[in-house]
Inverse folding.
């Protein structure tokens, strides 16, 4: 079985709208690839919110919990287009 490397997403500080960046390549994480870790406990059981980086050469699995905690209104991330 392959071991998946996990990275910690980063909350962008220079963005007008809430934006998370990949902890591996610093690309913007698409809102459509951020999900609650309910049925995928094996892919990061310690993490409640996960994101998959869609950058061509990356594809990293990111834990978003700490980055979302830094946002004033984390739910706003899911209500805005990315």
């Amino acid at each position: 079985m392959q071991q998946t490397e996990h990275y910690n997403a980063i909350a962008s500080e220079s963005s007008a709208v809430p934006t998370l960046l990949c902890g591996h390549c610093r690309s913007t994480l698409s809102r459509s690839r951020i999900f609650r870790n309910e049925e995928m406990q094996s892919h990061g059981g310690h993490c409640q919110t996960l994101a998959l980086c869609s950058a061509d050469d990356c594809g990293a699995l990111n834990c978003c919990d700490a980055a979302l905690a830094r946002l004033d209104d984390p739910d706003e991330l899911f209500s805005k287009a990315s």
Q: What stands out?
A: The chain has two helices and six strands. The mean pLDDT is 82. The chain has one domain: 6-79.
